[in-house]
Structure formats: C-alpha cells, structure tokens
Amino acid sequence: MLKGLSILGYAGMVGGLLGQLAARSVFSASPAVITVQAGAVLLMLWARRTFGRRSFHLAANPTEGGLVTNGLYRYIRHPIYAAVCLFIGAGAAAHWSWSAGLSSGLVLAGAVLRIFCEEPLVEARYPQYAQYKAATWRMIPYVY
Known about the structure:
This protein is mostly helical. It has helices spanning 2-22, 31-51, 79-94, 98-125, 129-135. The chain has 5 helices and no strands.
C-alpha cells in the first residue's frame, strides 16, 4: 500500500510541476528568485552526489548499500524533496496566482506523501534509521 501511495505522491509532484509550467510560473527574471532557485539546484546536486550511484525508484523502495547519513543528509533526511519544493515554491511566489499556489501546494503535498511512505520502508530495512530520524529534520532544519 505504501508503494502505491508513493506513486500517487510522485504523480502529484509531476502534476504540480506541469501545472506551473503551463501557467508559466516556474522561472522568473528576479535576481532574488534566481538566487533561491540556483541554491535549490545546488542543494539537489549536493544531495544527489552524496547519495551516489543509487537509482531513483518511482515507487518508494529503499536502495541497497546502507543508510546515507553524511553530507547534506547529516542535517535533513529528504534534501532532494526539500530542494524541489524550494525551487517550485520560489517560482510560485514570484508569479503569485491561485493556479501557481495550487500547483506549488500539489508538489509539496506529493513530496510529503512520499516521505510518509518512504520512511517506514527505510526504517524496516535499516533499523538504525530510527536513531538517525531522531537526530535529523525531514526537510527544513528546526521546522520540519
């Protein structure tokens, strides 16, 4: 059931992104928005590099090779989802409309759904995840 729900979360993230693309509310000429989005891309690249050659799975599925707790993962458990939400949220804020807000909210909701599906599966595979989870934040340090 968790794997099926995680696919729904992924579909929500993709749907939200497509909605923002259709509304032309992803990119902005504002230096502040460009800076935030560039930071989000750097966060994603750092997280992806730390994660290594492990593949992305459409459905929540813990990867082989042990639990990653170094690099950016030392501070937050889901830095790639955080980076995607930051990137999309900055675009929506720059082009505020109901459609941009709803699309951005759909991306965030999809990411949160995937997190809630992935975490029990990772904890079942890697028992040390419970200790790691107690020492880190999901997406935003000191907030969530």
